[in-house]
Amino acid sequence: MKDIVILLATYNGERFLRQQFDSLFGQSNQDFRLAVHDDGSTDGTVEIINEYRDKYPDRIEIFYGNSCGGPKENFLWMLGRVEADYYLFCDQDDVWFPQKLQRSIEALTEAEGLIHHEGDEIQPVCVFTDMKVVDEELNVLSDSFIRYIGRLPSNTAYTQILIDNPAAGCTMCFNRQLRDLVVQLAPQLDMKKIPMHDVLVLETAAIMGQVVAIDEPMAYYRQTGFNTMGATTESESQKASRNLEDLKQGSIFAKKKAFVNEAREFAGELLKADWLPKDKKNILLRFSKIGEKGKFRRMSFYSKNNFTRAHHNLWFRLWV
Fold first, then answer.
1. Residues contacting 165, CB < 8 A, separation 6+
2. Is there a contact between 202 and 121 (Cβ–Cβ < 8 Å)?
3. SS3 for 77?
4. What is the rounded distance in angstroms from the CA atom of residue 154 to the CA atom of residue 46?
5. Helix, strand, or coil here: 105?
6. In the beta sheet, which residues pair with residue 87?
7. How large is the angle between the packed helices 45-55 and 14-24, nearest 10 degrees?
């Protein structure tokens, strides 16, 4: 039997934490253990964690101390300290559907089987699902988190993920092979240039193995107003008005370039990995420095190497 671990990072999450715990221990597949690290909560979060640890003493491992300073650092810290075959990230204020774990593990093991040949090593694989976006009371705002943020589940090439990541970490399930690559690389990285822990995991999977999308909601993504990386609640008209105002103020191009510059910095950090294939290393290196080239060179490079977004490819190719 495979060892499955769910990594739960918490910080001042007492309001919704019990509901998330109940959804985890209500999964159809209960062959998992839960590893929890609290990042210095000052509310009742730790008491709730201890309450559930007392209920499930053989299922929950708690890490104490070592304040990380944010979810990105917290999840990567845990990832480096927990040994397992399969890993899942879990946010404190979401609610998982009962089949989420089972469906994710099935998709992961199927992908491993399809790309594994006898005598070969299993490749890194990451599976992600969609979610329903809900308010604090679980009233549905959108049936698709991925489309709500303007992305497509099919955009899983490593060049697409750099600029248009479709996945949320709380939907990811990945294997030990992928975890080991991330853990090996993470200490070398400037964390200020890494968007989030989940993007690092997904990008590594796309470069070195396979990314699989389950285009079906498997959790409620709760919009609380305190999400670190929340789904945008702008309508198209609101977005158009904001872009028009930015254009009037002369800041629209600077904002869009800043967005892509962050992706270029991320690509530059990935170059520190000694496991990068030569061809992809070359593409990442060129992308990290493409801002130094002329517009037509940039446009040609983006088109040739599949730097595409679900939407807004025109401004991306013309201006950045």
1. 151, 195, 198, 199, 202, 203
2. no
3. helix
4. 39
5. helix
6. 5, 174
7. 20
- The model's pTM is 0.89
| Gap between the Cα atoms of 110 and 282, Å rounded | 31
Tokens of 318: 């013309």
Which residue spans within 206-284 are E strands per DSSP?
A: 210-222
Question: Any idea of the CA torsion for 179, 184, 188, 189, to the nearest 10 degrees?
Answer: -10
Cα 163 to Cα 29, 34, 128, 148, 320, distances in angstroms:
34, 32, 17, 17, 12
Running DSSP on this structure, what letter comes out for residue 256? Answer: H
Dist CA 94 CA 65 (whole Å): 24
pLDDT (tens digit per residue) in 10-60:
999 999 999 999 999 999 999 999 999 999 999 999 999 999 999 999 999
Name the CA dihedral angle for 298, 303, 305, 308, rounded to a multiple of 10 degrees. 100
d(CA 39, CA 42): 10
Indicate if the alpha-carbon torsion angle 295, 299, 305, 306 is positive or negative: positive
| Cα–Cα distance for residue pair 245/139, rounded to 1 Å | 32
Residue ranges of alpha helices (H) inside 209-251 are 236-249
How big is the chain by its Cα radius of gyration, in Å?
20
Q: What share of the chain is helix, strand, coil (3-state, %, to 5)?
A: 50, 15, 35
Token pair belonging to 96: 């998982």
Residue with the bigger pLDDT between 300 and 238: it is 300
**Total count of residues recorded for the chain:** 320
In which residue are the tokens 């498997």 written? 218
Round to whole Å and give the CA distance between 162 and 175: 21
Tell how many helices (H) and how many strands (E) occur in the chain: 13, 9
Three-class DSSP category at 233: coil
- Distance between CA atoms of residues 26 and 96, nearest Å: 9
* From 3-7, 42-46, 66-70, the region with the lowest mean pLDDT: 66-70
